[in-house]
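To whoever picks this up:

The nightly regression suite flagged tRNA pseudouridine synthase D as changed. Nothing in the input moved, so I suspect the structure step. Input below, exactly as stored in the fixture:
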Amino acid sequence: MTAEATPWPPAWPRALGLTSDMAPDRVSGMGSHEALPAGDYRAVPEDFVVEECLGFSPEGSGEHLWLWVEKRALTTHELARMLAQVCGVRERDIGYAGMKDRQAVTRQWLSVHLPGREAPEDIQAALDARLASDDARSVRLLDQARHPRKLKRGVHRGNRFLLRLSGDVVDDPGLESRWQRLIEGGVPNYFGPQRFGPEGRNLARARALLARGWRKRDDRQGMLLSAARSYLFNQLLAARIVDNSWATPLPGELVMLEGTASQFLVDDVDDELRERAARLDVHPSGVLWGSGRLASQDQAAERERAMIASEPELAAGLEAAEVRMGRRPLRLRLDAPRLTRDGHELRLAFGLPRGAFATAVLRELMTHPTL
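Regenerated output under the current build:
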């Protein structure tokens, strides 16, 4: 495993004194999980269940057929390709709001552009036929409806997770206290390891591509640009976890309101703002690097410029690729969190906003090679 693929420091285990201290100048994509118990969350796909929360319903008429599907051991890309074949359309005529994991059971909407055409008579049978020789993979069509527009990336509100944990973490006496700290204090909003590929190879590819000049034909889905921006964000978040400023705004901070895209600039951090941050009403944010003007100021901007100065090639490559600068909250609030035990079985249930990773929650609770 490469250094860039090793985990960034968790927040609450450090705050609880469970991991060794790390000086800010030593943050380089590496963290310390050694005191956390080992656990597994993907022994079988049913251990990791994800349901997309769209936030609205299809209207019932229109050129696009929307399908509510449950898939097992399939990527969203694979399912989209299968639906295109079954419905006799191009892959670009298939829409979906978000990418869902392969090693999981996931439910999400996909859309098929069928202007002036009826839907195939038995989509379920056609999908089953394509998976007949594969016991691991499956797709179930749960519902369908028409809608005037294609389902676009990022229009969903979030995702609901139901995870079953196994291993030493199940019997760990400190698990409940760490879980409660996540509920009360929030979750570091790290990009998950899947963003960087196995052993961080997407990031290595991104470095090489940006060094010679990004071209869309070399990165059609923007996956490598995303890996580079995500890495820089994680570096910033890790540094602010190390100095314990990740949950409290700094002077010049661009603060984001919980549950919305609204944000405002903080000149002075007063008691009222600290209290709002403590109750998870507002969150500090970090830059998603690209071209444009840095929105933060003062101490917050200094931290972000220092992060960029440590990775000048990545930053310059993103600017040259004309990726627009953005913001992302440094912290997440768990929606309707629940921990249940049944004998030796432990389950976690929680909701996260779109763009957030369940692995960011799990890495605060246990160790696992992919966390």
